[in-house]
Q: What sequence folds into this?
């Protein structure tokens, strides 16, 4: 037990930077022994950083042959090393699960000996869980880049969700920071997963995002990301230049049996370690959703763990505000029918850190407003800042019975103080005298206390009775203790070099937003 | 106008119904309201404070009357509203019976459209209460922490029983029982609601609810402390120092639940 304790500590420590912890997307009934999976996902605890714990998120081993600059487990790092035995980890998972500590297992790993050696041990562990223990709970397995298709396929039959990290938003950055990881080794398994899911008609979710596309014609649908700017050639700045035909190793099996990764595939990239613009990141994730039918693309703010001339300095605070805005942009992509180009155009390559991307978009496109809530289509309603997917649906349903009054909007769930600038209700405008983007921007910032939360707090400032009260803003923003310097001037120079976030953000977490895992019911 | 509730609804009705606190009893009151005398309010008989202004009547729970109302809600309003009514009934909200009475009266007028009237004050309030119950139900699915206890019986093999203590705001035991009973078919378990002194007792997929005190519980299993330590260690290790955010943690997992969580003990 003591050795398990030691291993648990080392291998949980190494896995904690992985973002995904979601358990949603698959409903599985108990098959006679232990465990089930709930489609809505269940969080079991919340750690001190405010992120939820739903899976036993752990590495199989942290003995790594790779030497990626950004990674705590890189070969050259001086850390304690350990490896689980398949049996040991399976037992630990079951005992934790019985006590309802966890919803399942998230198994990642460093590359010990070789990708196939590591993947085979992972496979054996999952096999024990599923076949010996009869475990029907959630399993998320991380795919080791470079794994052989046969082993990947077998792991896919055991796991609920598969993910392979693209690590960094562009090929250049990957080449710089993780020279041993090749885009090909990442995209080949990714393609195989998409292909298998497509052939088995097991894709759920992503198809609803891009309605006019045939989600089952993957092979023809693999498009590469368009280059940024004029002086770049296709493939530059993008990881998605994979060549060659995707692998297809298995014919679809009997339907309803042998499910392959029923909760789909996800990926993750580190942001803030390399100089990509938000636009590049959002474009890359849009392309991942389109081409690989990802369930989610996760962003992980870079946390400095080592001194390297290639990386931001050791005491650089992680760009958590930026990460939060990227997740909001991701939400717009997946649930609000926005395209990456609408969220960020070439003139504005970075997201506004003070305002959420939906308001920013609305202010740039102010001629589309105000929108009459009693007449607008669902698509139009979803574009109104302050109106979410649930309240948009409620508006559509309720106005069939009677016209919606302005006072009803709050009860319907609309964030009225944000939405009022962008709507008319029964022909009347409630946002003031006129629609002026600059004024709305100012009022939106003031009324929501965003400025108070994001900008430096001077210790000596007296509390004025006329200051707006700092409100809890949305679900995700925590009370801020840290400071953010002016990002606007900064944003202009950013495309050039690595963006430094010196002492910018502390104690800020976008983790709250993460809790709605599988997505909202639409 | 009397007491607390929305005035005009109560005007003209002059009798308070008292019932035994069961859902069936409540449904019988609804039956009486429609087929007998209109109720000015419905109250649990054990918590009722008599008033000289409003006479009261004790309604005996009758299964056939309750069943008729149950079916009527399902057929004339909707299945979702029946579920909603039941969840609201399990809540600890004040005057929940009267709020439900109003909601159901509206429901019998409007049919299934009642749940779309999001801005109607009666519907809004019931919807908010339902949300609280549903949120707690969902939270508890994650926040229950079992301990393995060992039952020793002479001549028999020692048997492990999973036990946990909860103190929920609302009476959600019966709506979380199915979830755990399905999930832990191979383990017998007890979920003990310490506030209401009752427990779900389950084995091999079936369960019942009984009165319960922790007087006769067997002792901890041999490895129980080790697994608790492992879990605590995991819980501490998984937090990223650079992101420490206690406000967020408390918002997601309110402190009132912490006392029964292994990771905080």
A:
């Amino acid at each position: 037990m003591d050795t398990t304790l030691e291993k648990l500590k080392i291998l949980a420590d190494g896995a904690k930077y992985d973002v995904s912890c979601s358990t949603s997307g698959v409903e599985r009934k108990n098959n006679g022994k232990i465990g089930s999976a709930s489609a809505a996902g269940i969080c079991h605890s919340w750690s001190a950083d405010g992120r939820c714990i739903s899976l036993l998120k752990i590495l199989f081993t942290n003995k790594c042959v790779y030497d990626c600059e950004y990674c705590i487990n890189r070969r050259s790092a001086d850390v304690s090393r350990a490896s689980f035995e398949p049996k040991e980890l399976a037992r630990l998972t079951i005992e934790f699960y019985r006590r309802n500590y966890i919803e399942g297992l998230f198994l990642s790993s460093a590359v010990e000996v070789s990708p196939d050696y590591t993947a085979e041990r992972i496979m054996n562990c999952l096999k024990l869980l599923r076949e010996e223990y009869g475990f029907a709970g959630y399993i998320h397995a991380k795919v080791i880049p470079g794994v052989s298709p046969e082993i990947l396929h077998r792991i896919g039959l055991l796991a609920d969700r598969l993910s392979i990290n693209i690590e960094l938003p562009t090929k250049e950055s990957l080449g710089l920071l993780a020279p041993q990881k090749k885009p090909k080794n990442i995209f080949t398994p990714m393609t195989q997963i998409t292909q298998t899911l497509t052939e088995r008609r097991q894709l759920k979710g992503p198809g609803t995002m891009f309605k006019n596309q045939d989600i089952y014609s993957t092979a023809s649908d693999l498009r590469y990301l368009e280059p940024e700017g004029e002086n770049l050639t296709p493939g530059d700045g993008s990881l998605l230049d994979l060549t060659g035909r995707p692998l297809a190793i298995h014919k679809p099996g009997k339907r309803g049996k042998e499910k392959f990764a029923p909760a789909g595939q996800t990926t993750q990239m580190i942001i803030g370690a390399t100089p990509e613009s938000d636009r590049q990141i959002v474009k890359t994730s849009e392309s991942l959703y389109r081409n690989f039918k990802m369930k989610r693309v996760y962003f992980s703010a870079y946390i400095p763990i080592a001194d390297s001339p290639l990386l931001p300095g050791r005491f650089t605070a992680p760009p958590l505000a930026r990460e939060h805005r990227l997740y909001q942009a991701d939400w717009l992509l997946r649930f609000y029918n926005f395209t990456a180009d609408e969220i960020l155009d070439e003139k504005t390559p970075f997201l506004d850190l003070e305002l959420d991307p939906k308001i920013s978009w609305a202010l740039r496109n102010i001629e589309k407003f105000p929108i009459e809530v009693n007449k607008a289509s669902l698509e139009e309603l979803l574009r109104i800042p302050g109106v979410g997917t649930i309240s948009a649906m409620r508006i559509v349903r309720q106005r069939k019975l009677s016209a919606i009054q302005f006072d009803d909007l709050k009860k319907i769930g609309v964030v009225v103080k944000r939405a009022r600038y962008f709507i008319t209700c029964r022909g009347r405008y409630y946002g003031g005298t006129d629609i002026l983007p600059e004024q709305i921007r100012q009022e939106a910032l003031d009324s929501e206390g965003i400025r108070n939360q994001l900008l430096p707090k001077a210790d000596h400032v007296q509390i004025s009775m006329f200051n707006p009260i700092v409100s809890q803003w949305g679900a995700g923003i925590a009370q801020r203790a840290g400071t953010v310097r002016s990002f606007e001037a900064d944003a202009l120079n950013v495309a050039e070099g690595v963006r430094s976030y010196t002492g910018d953000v502390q104690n800020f977490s976008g983790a709250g937003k993460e809790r709605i895992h599988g997505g909202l019911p639409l | 106008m009397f007491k607390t509730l929305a005035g005009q609804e109560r005007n003209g009705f002059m009798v308070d119904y008292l019932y035994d606190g069961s859902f069936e009893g409540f449904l019988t009151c609804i039956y009486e309201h429609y087929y007998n005398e209109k109720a000015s309010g419905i109250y649990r008989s054990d918590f009722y404070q008599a008033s000289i202004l409003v006479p009261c009547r004790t309604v005996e729970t009758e299964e056939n009357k309750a069943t008729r109302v149950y079916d009527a809600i399902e057929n004339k309003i909707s299945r979702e509203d029946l579920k909603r009514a039941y969840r609201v009934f399990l809540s600890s909200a004040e005057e929940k019976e009267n709020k439900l009475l109003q909601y159901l009266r509206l429901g019998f007028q409007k049919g299934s459209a009642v749940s779309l009237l999001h801005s109607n004050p009666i519907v809004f309030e019931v919807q908010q209460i339902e949300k609280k119950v549903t949120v707690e139900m969902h939270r508890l699915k994650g926040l229950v922490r079992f301990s393995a206890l060992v039952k020793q019986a002479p001549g028999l093999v020692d048997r492990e029983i999973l036990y946990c203590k909860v103190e929920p705001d609302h009476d959600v035991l019966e709506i979380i029982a199915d979830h755990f009973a399905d999930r832990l078919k191979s383990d017998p378990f007890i979920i003990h609601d310490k506030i209401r002194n009752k427990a779900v007792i389950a084995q091999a997929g079936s369960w019942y609810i009984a009165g319960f005190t922790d007087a006769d519980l067997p002792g901890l299993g041999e490895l129980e402390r080790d697994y608790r330590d492992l879990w605590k260690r995991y819980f501490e290790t998984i937090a990223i120092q650079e992101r420490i955010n206690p406000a967020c943690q408390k918002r997601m997992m309110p402190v009132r639940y912490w006392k029964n969580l292994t990771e905080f003990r």
Remarks:
- Residues 1-9 of chain B have pLDDT under 50 and may be disordered.
